Amino acid sequence: MEQRQSSFTFEEILTCSRGEMFGPGNPQLPLPPMLMLDRITEVSEDGGEHGKGHIRAEYDINPERWFFDCHFAGDPVMPGCLGLDALWQMTGFYLGWLGLEGKGRAISVGDIRFAGQITPETKMVEFGVDFKRVMKGRLILGIGDGWVKADGETVFTAKDLRVGLFKDQ
Questions:
Q1: How many Cβ atoms sit within 10 Å of the Cβ of residue 42?
Q2: Cα–Cα distance between 6 and 154 in angstroms, integer?
Q3: What is residue 154's predicted lDDT score, i.e. its pLDDT?
Q4: What is the pLDDT of residue 1?
Q5: DSSP string, 68-119
Q6: Are 78 and 68 in contact (CB under 8 A)?
Q7: Domain that holds residue 129
Q8: Which reactions does this protein catalyse (predicted)?
Q9: Which of 118, 131, 161, 166 has the fewest CB atoms within 10 Å, i.e. is most exposed?
Q10: Distance CA 164, CA 134 (A)
Q11: 19 in a domain, yes or no?
Q12: Residue 122 class from Cβ within 10 Å (0-12 exposed, 13-18 middle, 19+ buried)?
């Protein structure tokens, strides 16, 4: 059995953003500045809270990040939707890493709970998705629970993240 790569540098992640990692028409990450990951530190087909796979990533924060100047003038904070997008990005990447085909699209999320914020003083954000189910039939769908930590403290959780892969007809 071939061992898949289990971590990725920023340069390697950019190959996914350019559509080079999983091939044309298959999952790809957005390009910066919408790319919300600097490193994928761990990806595995097993483990995680539900024992059905997980992915972990990191994002370095500095006061110059583009969103601080345009979200709440005078009260800079990273928009929660960008953290949610990072979790969706990771879910789509995971499906491509599994070798599944189609263009990734975020479908939905269940319950989201905010418990903190990411500010220009934050140094690093960690993201995690623990998969509950991956459907690999006619419908390709990843379902998982995610979390976001700012300097080690959980700032929000998202239940039932759903990303599907769709092939052009």
A1: 15
A2: 24
A3: 98
A4: 52
A5: GTTSSTTS----HHHHHHHHHHHHHHHHHHTT--SEEEEEE---EEE-----
A6: yes
A7: 8-164
A8: a (3R)-hydroxyacyl-[ACP] = a (2E)-enoyl-[ACP] + H2O
A9: 166
A10: 10
A11: yes
A12: buried
Number of domains in the chain: 1
- What CATH number did the domain enclosing 134 receive? 3.10.129.10
Between CA 86 and CA 26 the distance in angstroms is 18
Is residue 150 in a domain?
yes
Annotated active-site residue 71? The verdict is: yes
15: helix, coil or strand? helix
b/e map of 52-90 (b: 16 or more CB within 10 Å)? bbbbbbebebeeebebbeeeeeeebebebebbbbbbbbb
Token representation of residue 36: 């919300």
- What are the tokens at 57? 């990533």
The residue from 71, 136, 159, 162 that is catalytic is 71
SS3 14: helix
- Is there a contact between 108 and 163 (Cβ–Cβ < 8 Å)? no
Rounded distance between C-alpha atoms, residue 168 and residue 137, angstroms: 16
- Per-residue tokens: 149: 């930590």
pLDDT of residue 160: 98
The per-residue pLDDT for 2 is: 66
Question: Which has the closest alpha carbon to 6: 49, 60, 53?
Answer: 53
Contact (Cβ atoms closer than 8 angstroms) between residue 115 and residue 150 = no
Distance separating alpha carbons of residues 59 and 125, to the nearest angstrom = 5
